[in-house]
Design goal:
- It contains five helices and six strands.
- By secondary structure, it is α/β, with parallel strands linked by helices.
- It has one domain: P-loop containing nucleotide triphosphate hydrolases (Rossmann fold, 3-Layer(aba) Sandwich).
- The structure holds adenosine-5'-triphosphate and magnesium ion (MG).
- Adenosine-5'-triphosphate (ATP) binds next to helix 2.
- The site of adenosine-5'-triphosphate has 13 residues, from helix 2.
């Protein structure tokens, strides 16, 4: 649902404990963007960034092992954020200073083995219509 609403240049910050489901959600977003094989989508913990091709590129970051935001700047994260694709950052709370002013923030909390609380918010005017559309779609699910 979220994946199909995202546009080129959107930035999604994922926050949640180990095993909360950040990669799992990224798989769903990638699928919503037309990535055919969700198995392709795995945590880029060691490589820091992976790229998939859906209707547009998806840049999947994982800041778990990042010790300093400089490591993000070293791979030109800003170039990706301003690029023609969608950026998704796992452990975004570790590299908040690298993020653009406007971004979507998704917090995932484990509430049971098979159950998660997912909180979506945004910063900046850019995502106002995204949020309105998401609310509409969630309403239809109820
Ligand atoms: N919404 C969900 N409902 C049920 N199970 C889930 C959900 N999201 C994830 N899981 C399960 O939780 C496990 C961990 O998920 P995932 O690898 O996505 O976590 P993560 O937040 O990316 O962890 P890490 O911090 O290690 O990267 C997986 O086995 C997955 O199947
Ligand atoms: Mg992960």
């Amino acid at each position: 649902m979220i994946g199909s609403l995202l546009k080129a240049g959107d930035v999604v910050a994922l926050i949640g404990q180990l095993g909360a489901g950040k990669t799992y959600l990224t798989k769903g977003i990638a699928e919503g963007q037309g990535v055919k094989d969700r198995k392709e989508v795995t945590s880029p913990s060691f490589v820091l960034i992976k790229q998939y091709m859906g209707r547009m590129p998806i840049y999947h970051f994982d800041a778990y092992r990042v010790k300093s935001p400089d490591e993000m700047y070293d791979i030109d994260c800003v170039g990706f954020f301003w690029g023609e694709g969608i950026s998704i950052i796992e452990w975004a709370d570790k590299v908040m200073e690298c993020l653009p002013d406007d971004f979507i923030k998704i917090t995932i909390e484990t509430v049971g083995q098979m159950s998660r609380d997912i909180h979506v918010s945004y910063q900046g005017e850019r995502y106002k219509s995204f949020m309105e559309e998401l609310k509409e779609r969630v309403k239809c699910l109820k």
